[in-house]
Amino acid sequence: MPAGARGGRPERAGAAPVVGRTIPRVSGHLYRKQHVVTSVVAVIVDDAERVALTRRAVAPFHGLWVMPGGKIDLGEPILSALHREVREEIGIDVVVGALVDVFEHLTPGPDNDHFVILYYRCRPSRHDLAPNPEEVAEARWVPRAELSRFDMPEGTRYVLGKLFPELHDPELRNLET
């Protein structure tokens, strides 16, 4: 293999080698993948203004409370991914409403990705949640008045603050330059 190459591919200028692979350096930061990871999340709100939350059993956001969702597979329509992820994580179907917002999650590091997350408001088809233990440690319906008590990543708190004004946190920012 020629000097400066890994796996037959030349290293990119500005990239840092990490355990046999190259991590791109973007604005001086390192990321695990060389592309943006696009994800979709269901903000499932029932008629009693309860929100379906899951406590993550896996990375990213392990141990934090989030709404069901995940990565969009290449070639998969966005709403198909949304339905698939909800079924996989909590075993219900949803009626998809409007796009609430797009949130950009940037946490540089060799074990992290650059996420662009599409949040859609949804209504549940039923209330009996069946969490998938491979991804979800716990799933529950959380009343609006109790949402602030849960440990959530910024994107989850930001989007809930858009739906419920009492949860708005002026310190949380989205899509900044």
TrEMBL record:
Residues 33-164 form the Nudix hydrolase domain. Keywords: Hydrolase. Pfam families: NUDIX. The keyword Hydrolase applies. Its cofactor is Mg(2+). It comes from the Bacteria. Gene3D superfamilies: Nucleoside Triphosphate Pyrophosphohydrolase. Belongs to the Nudix hydrolase family. This is DNA mismatch repair protein MutT. It comes from Anaeromyxobacter oryzae.
